[in-house]
């Protein structure tokens, strides 16, 4: 981890001279960040990564000779590889390419500004890029060398006696819904989690992944191809059914409401919460209100603390909350906020999370 006295070294890679300049200007104004170089294609980028040993690379998705995907593949087996922040076009093709890059190990992504002026572009990049850089600074290990999560469980810092969270146990009210919140590192985590849930999984799953419009549709399509469960981007009025995973659309909020005897999805354009839209807190609150004690919240890797307030609402209603452990998170932010607040009934590594979620969904019976 970089300390305040050790600059975070960044390499800027983009085939556009204008974007290289904008990104360099934004980063050069950050305390504790050193821009060590730039490259206009992937071939040169790999050479400069070897020479300059940056901690972070801002990496254009589409480039001549060797694109961002090619760079990521080359870096996959490089010791102490830098974290890659992808720079993506706000298009359907850009969304598909970026989601693929995230699955291939990219740390996170930002959108290329599509503004009317250079000044506005700089402002947008500063707003979007700086939090990602700070998350890289705080992450425990380079993405390319992150240890595989251990198949082990550890109890949360207990608000209740440790025995209450020790398997096996059964709940008075088994969950009838699973709500998942995830951000940075989410696409990789979801690819490792959701395909391991069986087609007869007993609860519907509602999911918030922090992403802009189009990107969540691409994510849902990819996960649907990989999963036994049906995965879709949420639609207003969509019924909540067993055997389905519904992902909140990027740039909108998603909640569940009662409608006659059914439960349905509502997609809203309410204001962002804690700078998030979609918001995990927003979804969790509605789940707590509609399902009460028959709800299970899961908070996975991500920066910030979205989900902590919603987890508190779930707990007030008697629901259960799981959080991902630090060692298997790309960024231990969101689950840490839940854990530190004493809201986690159990903490699990990502590799164990499908087993733990399955056990809770069956009413607490551990296998």
From TrEMBL:
Catalytic activity, reaction form: L-glutaminyl-[protein] + H2O = L-glutamyl-[protein] + NH4(+); [protein]-L-glutamate 5-O-methyl ester + H2O = L-glutamyl-[protein] + methanol + H(+)
Region (Disordered): 146-167
Enzyme class (EC, first level): hydrolase
Domain (Response regulatory): residue spans on this chain: 9-127
Modified residues (4-aspartylphosphate): 60
Free-text comment on this protein's domains from its UniProt entry: Contains a C-terminal catalytic domain, and an N-terminal region which modulates catalytic activity.
HAMAP family, alphabetized: CheB_chemtxs
Protein name per the record: Protein-glutamate methylesterase/protein-glutamine glutaminase
Gene that encodes the chain: cheB
